[in-house]
Amino acid sequence: MSGRWVGIWPIRFALVAVLTALSGLAEVRAQTATLVPGTDAALIDDIVTGSRVLADFGVLDGFGHVSARHPANPSRFLMSRSLAPALVAADDIMEFDLDGNAVDARGRSLFLERFIHSEIYRARPDVMSVVHTHSPGVIPYTISQVPLRAVFHNAAFLAAGAPVWDIRKGFGETDMLVRNAAIGKDLALTLGDRPVVLMRGHGDVAVGPSVKLAVFRAYYTDVNARLQSQAIALGGEANYLTPGEGAKADAVNLAIVDRIWNLWKMRASTSPAK
Hints:
Layout: H1 3-32, H2 41-56, E1 65-69, E2 76-80, E3 93-97, H3 114-123, E4 129-133, H4 139-143, E5 164-165, H5 167-171, H6 181-191, E6 196-199, E7 203-208, H7 211-234, H8 243-269
Parallel strand pairs: 5-6
Antiparallel strand pairs: 1-2, 1-4, 2-3, 4-7, 6-7
């Protein structure tokens, strides 16, 4: 073998070693980002996108959370570790049981109000996603005698009614937080079969048959509240959607939600990453 080839072989071996190492590193990274068993990347991405989009719109700030029922195990749900919604990434998503226990906490901090989610999933088998917000536009309707009503077609789901839950009625003077299963169960009872429940002096909860719909409802609940306040300020009697109009319009929104979701997802993809 010539000296030229003798010199080349060590280089080739070195390149092979480097490529093998890089391949192994990529595999390790892929394993690190392994999703919760039984889930898929699309569902996790929806939770991340929903969290960031609602933060971008100001419906969520450093607080609030988006969750999804586990697609393979209805007695489990998925939600981020305790983190500001705008910072949520795929690796932050954890699995919980319906008692609010983390399946594999690994020392990660948990949202105190995870019982909002666990008890609604327990009470509502039809719900596949839950969003809890401290929506600024909605808060006035949680403390006044004016009911939140559907003003326009994108918030048609509100025509079914948005009851107000008052933690003080069942639990006295508290810190206003849904910090255990008993309080979460009481909230779920007030929600009943509706898509939204308001929380006195706190915020609201929106639910849906998918993450996309729950996020859609959380966002448009806030938009509707702001528009209703503007209409009231104009004076006179507002002309709200009837329950029949609400049901028909909501069916259309359900069918075309991907149109707005894809726009929101594009916006979220340009937001600062974690």
